[in-house]
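Have a think about this chain, tokens included, and walk me through the fold.
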Amino acid sequence: MNLVSGNITASQRDILGLPVCDLGWADAFAFAEEVATMPFGQSVIAFINAGNANLMMRDPEYRAVLERQIVLPDGDGVDIASMVFHGRRFPANLTSIAFVPALLTYIAKPMRVALIGAQSETLLRAADTLRQHTPWHEFLPIADGHFDEGQSDAIMEQVRAADIDILLVSMGSPAQEKWIDRHVGPGHARLVLSLGPLFDALAGSTPPMPETIRRFRLGWLYRLVKEPSRLPQRKAQIAFAYHVLRYRLSGSMMARDGANTAKAGTL
């Protein structure tokens, strides 16, 4: 399976039946910049990790939404799944917390960036951090993540009126991906990203992971040592491992590998 946009072509690996792009950092930045600076069209990027992969396995609607979006690998669990299914890791671990600030640094052309999600105070602090990080872009905190569903169209009218290039949405999975699928369309932004706890990290609520830990992909060990209270969350990783093993033994992957080449993600 392949993702094609302009000058960038990326193969997609089957991870539990979901096509996941195997772009490295440089190609991922180039692709995102290309779609963000186009005069028309829209691309939606989501991130898959062990936690939301578990959600996908029991929520067919969520899976269908992700299949309509461009999915990037996020976390050690997905890397392990790639090793099991394809014999190699992904070229890069494109976590949203690392990817988005780096992407905004990479894009030299001034962009108008809207933020939706998180608590009101966290949203404002995150926008301020991004302004300091990349002052050549303009950041507009549109709405926190605690609005009623009925307010969605009005919020997106604000986004449309603001002539946004990039839209960042952080509401938690699967809510953020489903909300984008229902309410965000061409004319709202050229590039849309659904994020994990990015705004919390930017606001200082979540301490950043050391670069050395990230490089050697030992995030799971770092989080366990730093936050032993997260031990119950290891159950999610065990559940993910179960899904990976079951999928590998079922033969579903081989059947999908034999399917026709597909293009996905750009609207």
Remarks:
- The two ends are 17 Å apart (CA to CA).
- The mean pLDDT is 85.
- DSSP finds 13 helices and nine strands in the chain.
